[in-house]
Write a structure and sequence with these properties.
Low-confidence stretches: 1-17, 19-31
Largest sheet: 5 strands, mixed
Radius of gyration: 22 Å
Mean pLDDT: 87
Strand content: 15-25%
Helix content: 25-40%
Shape: globular
């Protein structure tokens, strides 16, 4: 990463890599104060897209505009926190819970139409909140070692493999290097640069070059984790760890919608359940109509308040990240003295 490229970018996940924010504004370095740091905004992007959606009922338009205002207030509140360490994490979680309840209850549940409730999975209105929240944990006040790190925090197309599409009879100018990427909702990654050629001096006309993101931490965020999603994550984690053996892979879900499966036989380091068990299908059917949701509002409110984003689970994820920066390559003298490595 060059000196004019910085840690946090305001982006959406893409099949390629993080993009610089519109207008080419300068992005804040990792050591910058929280109010001045530009971070990824996948949730805001979904709200803006929703407002432009031609299928959005006119009755919901004002509620979406109001949610965008609440979003801005949430971001301002997180940027204004004057705390460090675990207390900063706790306050971030509290603010995320307050904002998430506004979206889930005031915007989606209270809508007099069924569009937002039935299409919430496709629209990614509420489940993108976690994607936007996670980079706020990547702060030197939470993980002091970040001051010395040069990396990117947020969604990215993480490097999964490199291959060559040239053949034995291909001209020496066509090495045709290709890269396969995996979109990840959250990464701690570094930019890397690859160049390949059949010529040792790498002539421009006979070389392939590209830059990419190596994910040393990757996390997939799910609202309701089921067995199919778990199996897909198992395959993805394997690909990413073949590409970067030192990587860590986490599966983060709000609700569990499956019988727990051991991660021992997979490349998933841990599954983190932020809120609890998903509501049963019989109960979800009761909520499908706006008129019924109005009657059962207090019941659903009780469910939300009984199942917030749990601070202890978020803290566990932070502790995992902290431990990565404490690990060092073994020193021969220390290894011999200890007798193991």
């Amino acid at each position: 990463m060059s000196s004019d490229e910085t840690l946090f970018a305001s982006i959406e996940p893409s099949a390629a890599e993080p993009a610089k924010p519109a207008g080419g504004e300068s992005l804040a370095a990792v050591s910058a104060e929280a109010p001045g740091r530009v971070r990824p905004t996948p949730h805001k992007s979904k709200l803006v897209e929703l407002l432009r959606n031609s299928k959005l009922p006119e009755e919901d338009r004002f509620s979406v505009e109001e949610s965008i205002e609440r979003y801005e207030a949430w971001i301002d509140a997180m940027a204004s926190i004057d705390a460090t360490g675990n207390e900063l994490v706790r306050q971030l979680v509290d603010l995320a819970n307050d904002y998430k309840k506004c979206v889930e209850l005031d915007l989606i549940w209270d809508s007099e139409k069924d569009f937002l409730f039935r299409q919430r999975g496709q629209l990614k209105i509420d489940n993108s909140i976690i994607e936007e929240f996670l980079p706020w944990l990547i702060d030197p006040r939470v993980i002091p070692a970040l001051v010395k790190q040069d990396l990117y925090a947020g969604p990215a197309g993480a490097f999964a493999a490199a291959y060559f599409s040239s053949s034995l009879t291909a001209p020496s100018s066509a090495i045709s290097m290709q890269v396969r990427r995996k979109d990840q909702d959250f990464t701690l990654s570094r930019r890397a640069y690859l160049k390949a050629s059949f010529k040792p001096d790498f002539p421009a006309a006979a070389s392939s070059s590209m830059d990419l993101w190596l994910a040393y931490v990757a996390a997939e965020c799910k609202t309701n984790l089921d067995k199919t999603m778990f199996q897909e994550a198992s395959a993805t984690s394997h690909d990413l760890k073949v590409a970067v053996p030192a990587a860590r892979y986490y599966l983060i879900c709000e609700y569990l919608d499956m019988t727990p499966i051991s991660t021992a036989g997979t490349d998933i380091d841990e599954v983190l359940i932020l809120r609890g068990k998903r509501l049963g299908s019989h109960k979800r059917k009761e909520y499908s109509a706006a008129a019924k949701r109005k009657i059962l509002r207090s019941e659903y409110l009780d469910f939300l308040e009984s199942n917030p984003i749990r601070y202890d689970v978020v803290q566990r994820f932070v502790d995992h990240l902290r431990s990565l920066f404490e690990a060092k390559d073994p020193n021969e003298e220390d290894v011999v003295a200890k007798g193991y490595f």
